[in-house]
Amino acid sequence: MSNLEGLIDPGSPLYERRKGVYPKAVDGFFRRLKWAAMAVTLTIYYVTPWLRWDRGPYAPDQAVLVDLAHRRFYMFAIEIWPHEFYYVAGLLVMAGIGLFLVTSAVGRAWCGYACPQTVWTDLFQHVERAIDGDRNAQIRLAHSPWGLEKIAKRVAKHAIWIIIGALTGGAWIFYFADAPTLMRHFMAGDAPFVAYSTVAILTATTYIFGGLMREQVCIYMCPWPRIQTAMLDEKSLVVTYKDWRGEPRTHGVKKAADEGLKTGDCIDCTQCVQVCPTGIDIREGPQIGCITCALCIDACDKVMAQIGRPRGLIDYCTLDDAAIEKAGGTPKPVLKTLFRPRTLAYLSIWSAIGLAMLFSLGARTRLDLSVQQDRNPIYVQLSDGSIRNNYTIKVRNMEARPRKVVLKVSGLSDARMWTQDGGRASASDEVEVTVDPDSVLKVRLFVAAPSKGPERQPFEISAQAAGTNEKGDSDTTQFERPEHEEDEE
Amino acid sequence: MVENKRIDEPTGTQTVGHEWDGIEELNTPLPRWWLLTFYACILWAIGYVIFFPAIPMLHGATKGITGWSSHGQLEASMNAEAKRRAPITAAIAATPIEQLLANDKLKQAAIEGGRAAFKVHCVQCHGSGATGSKGYPNLNDDDWLWGGDIATIHYTITHGVRNPDHNETRFSQMPAFAGVLTPAEISSVVSFVRTISGQQQPNAASARGATLFAANCSQCHGPEGKGGRQFGAPNLTDAIWLYGGDRATITQTVMKSRFGVMPRWNNRLDPVTIKMLAAYVHSLGGGEAAPSAPAANVKP
Ligand code: SF4
Ligand code: SF4
To answer: What residue's CA is closest to ligand 1, atom 8?
Structure first.
């Protein structure tokens, strides 16, 4: 061990041990907001897989389900097939733009309130406080020698953390299978291996990231603060220490005033530093470690109330407003800060994507046809002189019942078609195929047409449920013919 | 450079002493866990080198004490795949070729297997799309020299065409008419052939050719020139030509005759692969339904 200690010499200027962070409990408006955010996000996370949604006999009745085996994604009334994955892509783009929107309006609100790392860290810290006590007790315990009490407390704390971690990992797998069934199998020990390994990995990561590493994840591992800093501008709300009001920091205000010294509002009580979950001093200015959880605002507001000064020595404030306030002006109303061209632009892009997706969801058909022309051979000369092209078509029946589908050709005169099963004897101007419920049928379609005609002729193949006038689907493809030789003679 | 180290005022952090264009690097310490993770990675790498093939040598790489290798893994998965396919391979072996297409699952498996085998053994002559080329039949169309039902295709693949060493091979030979008919007569026959295939209008020459055709060609090609699969004699009235339907090519064919060969595969491929090839060729779009009796043409 001593050699290892040498390698990572604690005195080395290159490396440093982690400084303990023992955030103090605090109460206030933002703390309550954080409670609320935590309650909402955790509830969504744990409850969602247990919501039921009736989809009839052929489909699962779980409201939100990622069915990897059958490659379906269910979200309430919406069912997404792999070829409709653009909806998921669209949701991800919306999530991205939503993050831009939130960041440009209210800074790192995601980090402070909604990020899983923040939510679980917060949860773990509450557990810690319940067992070890608040900040001072925690520090005392950390430095006290190992004894029965310390061991008991440590074991209890880590055990509860691991249980929370396991519950976290445990909830995750329910998104990927029928939750009640999986729960039964999981408990009985005959769930698939991947379920157990997922729970094990997520338990470990939750415990390590949320319990052991906490602010280290935010400061050293997460790329998001770096990107976010680039997205903030001087009109974004950030947690700001109003140094023009606070400085010079003064311990004994009365005494200093008596002595005729200049006094600031900050009494250097370090409450703001003690409550900070990332252990930074916001009075040093905006910094990457600040997740804008605003707990320091709550802490300082309390102090200001006690010393009879107006609240908001530390407050949400834009850089622009900070400059205005410093110069003695009145800052812009918050609404104006929130709704400005940049946020409105994000908002309109965001809602345009959302509306477009809703619209296309409403307009999509549950019968889908895609046609792919065989390229090898491009065409085949038949003995009667006509030309045959081959196509591979996929008919997707996205309804939970078997359906007969009629395929037709349009825009190609005298075309005859047949499938491999029927053979040429069944050549006709339409073909009927049966598609199983909720599945894709792949058929090779042979289309023959007279050799007279353009060398490359676009035409359309359409699919419609037999005997209905439901909206079907169609796909445009090409008919290719050899170069014409008959002009030779 | 060391002597240039100093404390940066605004941050209170020591600089590393480098300076580029007035920009100095702060010596911000790494967290210790990061360093430990780095060391753990080094340990992991050392372990990796010990356990797995890692260091390239002149021939291959160091073995690694676990004995794992990607070649070994490939072999294992190939074996596993063969094992997985064993039941279906056995089923194909046990199914008579005439009934192979009746079972949908066997049919699909046979077509896919045939597709793979075709890419290895047949594309050299018939092309990757099985479209053939001059002298090599297009297997996609509906014109067959020897027959297009699966059993006949299977026979052709098994025994090949004109294999001198093999009794059951398909065999026929068109005589070369260069010394038998005069050039003028050959020209008339060509005119007749081009008439029955709709490539030119009947005229005096083709009328003369008709008589000559009846006397010399109809034994194999049939009285109407519709060909005879028993002899692998092509249908001369359709739009498909193995060597070409223009005057010059037909003249050449009549004068010197043609002699296409195809290897027999029963001495090179296993019966299951041959069955699968037949299923694949049959699936290309020209496959015919089984006739009443499979046409078997053997060397007389
Ligand atoms: S809590 Fe407020 S008064 Fe106390 S040190 Fe921080 S800024 Fe100053
Ligand atoms: S400085 Fe304040 S807002 Fe920033 S992380 Fe610390 S407590 Fe939260």
So the answer is: A266
Residue pLDDT, tens place only, A137-156: 999 998 888 989 999 999 99
- Between positions 396 and 435 of A, the ones with CB within 8 A of B are 420, 423-425
Mean pLDDT of A327-339: 81
pLDDT in tens, A275-317: 999 989 999 888 888 999 999 999 999 999 998 888 889 998 8
- DSSP tally for chain A: helices H, then strands E: 18, 15
pLDDT at A13: 63
Look at the block and give the residue holding tokens 């990927």.
A176
Which residues, judged by CB distance below 6 Å to any ligand atom, belong to the binding site of ligand 1? A 246, 266-272, 283, 299-300, 303, 313-314
Torsion of CA B22, B23, B24, B29, to 10 degrees: 180
Distance, in Å, from the CA atom of A291 to the CA atom of B106, rounded to the nearest integer, reads 62
Calculate Rg over the CA atoms of chain B.
35
Question: CB under 8 Å, gap of 24 or more: what pairs does A135-144 form?
Answer: A135/A22, A135/A23, A135/A24, A135/A25, A135/A274, A138/A22, A139/A20, A139/A22, A142/A20, A142/A22
The mean of the pLDDT values for chain A is 87
Write the residue with the smallest CA distance to atom 6 of ligand 2. Answer: A276
The reply to whether omega before A377 is within 30° of 0 (cis) is: yes
Question: What pLDDT does A3 receive?
Answer: 53
Question: What residues contact residue A99 under an 8 Å CB cut-off, 6+ apart?
Answer: A110
pLDDT at B97: 93
Tens digits of residue pLDDT in B175-215:
999 989 999 999 999 999 999 998 999 999 999 999 999 99
Is residue B166 a contact partner of residue B159, using CB atoms and an 8 Å limit?
Answer: yes
Q: Give A468 Cα–ligand 2 centroid separation in angstroms.
A: 63
The model's pLDDT over A372-402, given as tens digits with 9 standing for 90+, comes to 999 888 999 998 889 999 999 999 888 878 8
The residue whose CB lies within 8 Å of the most ligand 2 atoms, and thus the one to mutate among A22, A242, A275, A292, is A292
**Residue located via tokens 């046990």:** B94
Mark yes or no for CB contact B131/A376 under 8 Å.
Answer: yes
Kindly report the protein residue whose alpha carbon is nearest to atom 7 of ligand 2: A276
Contact yes or no for B241/B227 (Cβ under 8 A): no
Q: Which ligand neighbours the alpha carbon of A241 most closely?
A: 1
Report which ligand 1 atom has the smallest distance to the Cα of A299.
1
Q: From ligand 2's centre to the CA of A295, what distance in Å?
A: 6
CA-based nearest residue to A406, from A461, A478, A449? A461
0.80 surpassed by pTM: no
Q: B253 pLDDT exceeds 90?
A: yes
* Closest ligand by atom to A314 CA: 1
CA distance A425 to chain B (A): 9
The burial of A158, by beta-carbon neighbours within 10 Å (0-12 exposed, 13-18 middle, 19 or more buried), is given as middle
Hunting for tokens 């379609």 — which residue is that? Answer: A445
Q: What is the pLDDT of residues A56-112, one digit of tens each?
A: 777 788 999 998 888 888 988 888 888 888 888 999 999 999 988 888 888 888 888
Name the nearest CA neighbour of B159 among B151, B144, B143, B170: B170
Are residues A472 and A397 in contact, defined by beta-carbon separation less than 8 angstroms? no
User: By CB neighbour count within 10 A (0-12 exposed, 13-18 middle, 19+ buried), where does A308 fall?
Assistant: exposed
Judge contact between A22 and A276, C-beta under 8 A: no
Does B235 or A366 have the greater pLDDT score? B235
Tokens describing residue A8: 């990572």
What is d(CA A9, CA A4) in angstroms, rounded to the nearest whole number? 8
- Give the percent of chain B with pLDDT over 90: 70
Alpha carbon separation from A45 to A38, A59, A94, A302 (Å, rounded): 10, 23, 19, 33
